[in-house]
């Protein structure tokens, strides 16, 4: 179908521009990857984009968040950027995949099938049961908690841990249940050189930034027809609000908080 072809073409173009939508190395230390000072941020920024270089219009790199010191603040900012970039890469690729393919088996124990690929990803999300949404958020929360706790073995990313280094599940494997690590579960990259780690770190940053533009481009095109001309032949109009994941099912507010804006 035309929509499938155009979305796959968009993926090819954007993926080609970013080299590959794959996360860079998380394990192993790298001098500039620690980004403990503003000078480290400037060095990474110049490698990531020699034309723009270091760009911090809000001067966040000079701040002292929660009185924890500037190095802790930079660790927080680095962790936030890497994490959001990775999530955006998942979201962008997932958007395209589920626009064209869905699992052939039942989604629920009652036999309900997965929402059709004819629906937009936003419409697919709206169509899944509330319980399934809570399961997804429960897993995300557990992964986030494990990260914040350093897996019981690593310091916090505001206390010296390499930003973006997700902790191993070794403690969980030893005490609860076997589970693969999120990064390099089979140890293929354990002997990666420092030069390769550095290069992949920069690639991951650029991929994540591009993916954030990509996924929001899709969301804007679906929500605001014509807002992204390049996607006019791809977008499926969406009447809901992609910023309210439990719209019509659960909310802390009596109505849409955006109605008054």
Distance between the termini: 39 Å
Q: Give the low-confidence spans.
A: 13-35
Tally of individual helices: 7
* Backbone shape: globular
Kindly name the structural category: mainly alpha
Q: Helix share of residues? A: 40-55%
Q: What does the average pLDDT come to?
A: 85
Count all strands and give the number. 0
What portion of the residues fall into strands of 2 or more residues? under 5%
Describe the biggest sheet? none
Radius of gyration: 20 Å
Give me the strand/helix succession: HHHHHHH
Describe the model:
Residues 13-35 have low confidence and may be disordered. 46% of the residues lie in helices and 0% in strands. The chain has helices at 2-17, 38-48, 70-100, 121-127, 130-148, 170-175, 194-223. It has 261 residues and is an all-alpha fold. The radius of gyration is 20 Å and the shape is globular.
Topology:
Elements: H1 2-17, H2 38-48, H3 70-100, H4 121-127, H5 130-148, H6 170-175, H7 194-223
Keywords:
261 residues, mainly alpha, 7 helices, globular
Briefly summarize what is shown.
It is built from 7 helices and no strands. The protein has 261 residues and is mostly helical.
């Amino acid at each position: 179908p035309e929509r499938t072809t155009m979305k796959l073409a968009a993926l090819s173009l954007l993926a080609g521009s970013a080299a590959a939508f794959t996360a860079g190395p998380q394990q192993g230390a790298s001098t500039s990857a620690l980004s403990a000072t503003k000078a480290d941020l400037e060095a990474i920024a110049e490698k990531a984009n020699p034309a723009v270089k270091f760009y911090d219009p809000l001067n966040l790199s000079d701040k002292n968040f929660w009185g924890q010191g500037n190095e802790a603040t930079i660790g927080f900012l680095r962790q936030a950027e890497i994490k959001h970039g990775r999530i955006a890469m998942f979201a962008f690729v997932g958007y395209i995949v589920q626009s064209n393919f869905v699992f052939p088996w039942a989604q629920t124990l009652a036999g309900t099938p997965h929402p059709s690929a004819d629906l937009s990803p936003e419409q697919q999300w709206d169509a899944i049961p509330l319980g399934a949404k809570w399961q997804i958020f429960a897993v995300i929360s557990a992964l986030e908690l494990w990260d914040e706790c350093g897996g019981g073995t690593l310091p916090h990313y505001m206390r010296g841990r390499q930003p973006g280094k997700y902790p191993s599940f070794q403690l969980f494997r030893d005490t609860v249940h076997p589970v693969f690590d999120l990064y390099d579960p089979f140890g293929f990259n354990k002997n990666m050189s420092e030069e390769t780690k550095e290069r992949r770190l920069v690639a991951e940053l650029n991929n994540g930034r591009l993916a954030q533009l990509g996924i929001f481009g899709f969301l804007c095109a679906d929500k605001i027809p014509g807002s992204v001309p390049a996607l006019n032949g791809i977008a499926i109009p969406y009447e809901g609000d992609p910023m309210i994941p439990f719209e019509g099912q659960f909310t802390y507010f009596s109505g849409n908080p955006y109605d008054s804006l």
